[in-house]
User: What shape does this take?
Amino acid sequence: MLRFRNYLKNELEKRQERNKHYSLRSFSRVLKVEPSFLSKLLRGKKNFTERSINRFSEELGLTLNQRLEFIQTEKDAKQINNIRNLRESVLWKN
Assistant: This one.
């Protein structure tokens, strides 16, 4: 399943293809979020929460099923990251 970050990046790119002047700032207005915060989310400096996925999904007109899939995908990715971090910390101790 596509990560929500990638979905938003793709959506931004589609809008930019349709309109050369469409910017991250424009997209942030649609999503009702600060441009700097959106930038951090898209670059992976901040993580999506269930609340942010729901909020952005609503603004983009996604279905409930799409929202739930994105939420589950983000939860799964977080668990995988936690396992990797734990594994790395164990390896460093040995």
